[in-house]
Each structure stands twice: as structure tokens, then as C-alpha cells.
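Q: what sequence does this backbone want?
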């Protein structure tokens, strides 16, 4: 189930918000017994529909897709199908935000938290070349793939517009040993992340509806916190709107500065960019903590900053200040 809000300038650039049309109990192939699926994943679908309702009232330069993906529990079939279709149609996908369980605040660990949420992202694309893997060994970037940059973008946007929220970057493709509908897009080489609650309750996931030892099992509506689901829907909406109004990220960023007291950066121009911003951070920091706007130039030297001590990236900035996702350096200045 796909709804496309076409961009006014760049209709072939897409940012995708997805939920899953799934509702299963203990046996994922049981399609006859009662399976409310309130949190998993009516919340993700409700959030996607609500984001479409709100954002469809506005126009954006890039396109937004709101999608309900089927067959998640049986093998991520919906995501695989849409990712293959996107490749066939040569869609330029800016990123995929998969929402799977965004309505529970009371965890099986005893924690009740209505502000924290997790952003899962893989470190580097699975389809990178051997040359790219070799370069990373010497120049760094083990946690700086395109999906990880999209996750950082969600983090930054949330802290800017919803500072009361606590986005938690999780350095994993998905939960331990489990999967979600962003993975097929990752497999196809697209940036994709998963947004979900921070504290799961496993008595309400993939469970036959029953009462056992005083515990009510089953994914029922009474366990959904609507105010929390609303917050995570807002996280999606502000990210979609920001990326849909922003220029694309630079395709290439070259970096140099070996045995020098400065860092040199040179990047490809972006047609809609009014300027560019250089970001850098400690190599152990999960987020881009330092930045400098350098105007409408495609190269710059950061004097007094030693290349060995930080990681660097470049974002394009639109005329209204909206920024692209950061591009991590993908070549070396000689």
C-alpha cells in the first residue's frame, strides 16, 4: 500500500516512511486466530497514515512516500518487493524510515519511559566493494555508512525541534538476531533505519492472547500509549519535512591533511545548495558535535585541526537553512 506525495522540483528524489501491515500471534503463519497487533504494528501504520495526513497539506521539493509493507513476519516480502521496484525504476532514495512498534512505554525490564526511543542503523552498506573496505581500514569510517548518517540526522532533527525527547542511537542493523523492513532496502544499497520504542514488553509481542500466572499476554489495544506514539510520529514528520525541503547530500567528498596542521576537504557541488557546512567530531562520539558553515564553496581548509583526531563530513544547505544528510569522505586528496 503506497501513497506518493510528489516533489515540486525533484520528483525522483524520495524519502520513505514505512509501517508494517502485520498482526501475528505465537505462530507467524497462523492467520485465523485473533491477533490484534495493536502495537506490532498498528502503531507504525497509524503513524505513517497520520504523517501523510499532516504533511500532505504542504509542498516539498523532494517526494515523500508513505507505505504499508506486508509480509514482514513471513520474510520481509513487502520491503523486498518495494526495494526491487525502486531499483528497477531508478528511484533516488534519500532514506527509508521504518517504524515498527512505536507505542509501548512499559518495558519487560520494569522501566517506564515515554521520551526515549531507539534508532537502529547498520554501520556500513553490505554491498560496498573490497576497495572501499580496504580504504576504511586505513582511513576510518567503520561507523559512518549512509544508514548511520541518516540515523544521526534523525537524532539531530529531534534534538532541534523536540529537545524533550531522548533519541538513542543503537549501533546495530536491528535488535539482536531479529529483523525489520528497513533491511531489504539496506540490502539493495539504500540508506534505511528503524525507529521504535526503547523498552519492549515481550509478553505483548507474538503471543497468543491468554492469561497465564497472572500475566495478560497478547498485543492488545489497552497496552498502547497513544501520546508516546504521537511523539514518535512527530519525530518522523519533522525528519520527512526537513529532508523533503533540503538539497541532496554531496555525492563525493575528498579529504586530505596527512602530517599537516590542517584538514583539506573538497566535495561535489549540489544544484539546489545555497552553501555547505563542514562537520567534525571525536572518533568515539556518536554524533556530529562541531560544525562550520563555509558558504557556497566546494572546498575548504580547516586550519589548526589535526586530521588524525577527528572524523569529518560535509552537508549541503538550502536557501532556507534546511540541511542534507552528512556525507562522510569517500576519497583521498592527493
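A:
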Amino acid at each position: 500500500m503506497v501513497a506518493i506525495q510528489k516533489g515540486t522540483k525533484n520528483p525522483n528524489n524520495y524519502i520513505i516512511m514505512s509501517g508494517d501491515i502485520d498482526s501475528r500471534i505465537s505462530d507467524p503463519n497462523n492467520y485465523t486466530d485473533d491477533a490484534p497487533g495493536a502495537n506490532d504494528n498498528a502503531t507504525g501504520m497509524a503513524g505513517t497514515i497520520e504523517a501523510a495526513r499532516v504533511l500532505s497539506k504542504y509542498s516539498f521539493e523532494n517526494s515523500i512516500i508513505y507505505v504499508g509493507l506486508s509480509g514482514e513476519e513471513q520474510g520481509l516480502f513487502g520491503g523486498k518487493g518495494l526495494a526491487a521496484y525502486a531499483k528497477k525504476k531508478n528511484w533516488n532514495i534519500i532514506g527509508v524510515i521504518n517504524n515498527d512498534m512505536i507505542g509501548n512505554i512499559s518495558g519487560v525490564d520494569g522501566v517506564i519511559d515515554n521520551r526515549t526511543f531507539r534508532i537502529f542503523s547498520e554501520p556500513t552498506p553490505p554491498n560496498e566493494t573490497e576497495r572501499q573496505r580496504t580504504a576504511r581500514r586505513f582511513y576510518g569510517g567503520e561507523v559512518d555508512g549512509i544508514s548511520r548518517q541518516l540515523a544521526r540526522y534523525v537524532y539531530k532533527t529531534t534534538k532541534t525541534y523536540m529537545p524533550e525527547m531522548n533519541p538513542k542511537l543503537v549501533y546495530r542493523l536491528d535488535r539482536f538476531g531479529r529483523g525489520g523492513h528497513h533491511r531489504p532496502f539496506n540490502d539493495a544499497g539504500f540508506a534505511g533505519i528503524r525507529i521504535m520504542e526503547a523498552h519492549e514488553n515481550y509478553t505483548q509481542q507474538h503471543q497468543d492472547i491468554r492469561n497465564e500466572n497472572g500475566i495478560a499476554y497478547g498485543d492488545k489495544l489497552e497496552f498502547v500509549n497513544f501520546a508516546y506514539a504521537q511523539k514518535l510520529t512527530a519525530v518522523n514528520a519533522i525528519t520527512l519535512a526537513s529532508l523533503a525541503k533540503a538539497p541532496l547530500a554531496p555525492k563525493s567528498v575528498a579529504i586530505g591533511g596527512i602530517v599537516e596542521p590542517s584538514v583539506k576537504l573538497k566535495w561535489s557541488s549540489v544544484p539546489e545548495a545555497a552553501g555547505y557546512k563542514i562537520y567534525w567530531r571525536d572518533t568515539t562520539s556518536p554524533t556530529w558535535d562541531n560544525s562550520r558553515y563555509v558558504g557556497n564553496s566546494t572546498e575548504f581548509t580547516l586550519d589548526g585541526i589535526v586530521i588524525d583526531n577527528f572524523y569529518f563530513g560535509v552537508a549541503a544547505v538550502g536557501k532556507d537553512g534546511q540541511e542534507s544528510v552528512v556525507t562522510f569522505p569517500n576519497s583521498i586528496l592527493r
